[in-house]
Amino acid sequence: MPVELTKLEDCALLRLNRPAALNALSFSVLKEISDALTEVADWKVRALIVTGAGEKAFCAGADIKELGGRSMIESKRGAEMGQATFAKLDRLPFTSVAAINGFAFGGGLELALACTFRVATPNAKLGLPEIKLGLIPGYGGTQRLPRVIGEARAMEMIMLGRTVAAEEAHRIGLVHRLVEGNAVDAAMAFAHEFTGYSLLAQNLAREAVSRALDVPIQEGLKIEADLSTLAFGTADAAEGMAAFTEKRKANFKDE
What we know:
Layout: E1 3-8, E2 11-16, H1 27-40, E3 47-52, E4 57-59, H2 72-91, E5 95-100, E6 103-105, H3 107-114, E7 117-120, E8 125-127, H4 141-149, H5 151-160, E9 164-165, H6 166-171, E10 177-178, H7 183-191, H8 199-212, H9 217-232, H10 235-245
Parallel strand pairs: 2-3, 3-5, 4-6, 5-7, 6-8, 7-10
Antiparallel strand pairs: 1-2, 8-9
Helix pairs in contact: 1-2, 2-3, 3-4, 4-5, 8-9
């Protein structure tokens, strides 16, 4: 199976399994990713880990052999398909972590950018090289990358087709952690830093931050006030504050 979806402790694991093709994104693979994200949204898990099989690549991007000879309408539909697939990560009822183990180029980096968090092994290399083919990113890269690392750095990576190594990616905020050893194990350890918290509170926090990027600060503050009020009204908030007062660990139930 080119896309594997399994449960790993309290997390789900989505693994691209085309190591001989560096886990490239054919259109059929995109469809399988979309179906997997639809399925996993109903799972009782605390987080989703996304990775690629093998040690060479997280995902080396689109399957270039499929792109030639396509009409403009077909190309637009392909871009919209990729965007719609990766947008499902934003709507999951839990946080996602990309475990980047090697190359993350083009659509592969766009997939990682759509995840909430990114961890990378020292051999990771990340880039949007579409400009070298006379193209530009089409699965969200031009929109998500500047939101993550800022306009100036994003413009340089996209316009020059520049690849960044793991250490630089960490320094500029493209990845959250540099990790040693098995990328999935490291991503799981990272996820366990937040999976014990209330899913309701996590989702409200994700929504507040993501909406802040699209509105003036005064409107964003109103959004924060509304969402923080919703959080305050949950049973998890009552449990969290009681646990703090009683000097014990909170037992959140996502209520």
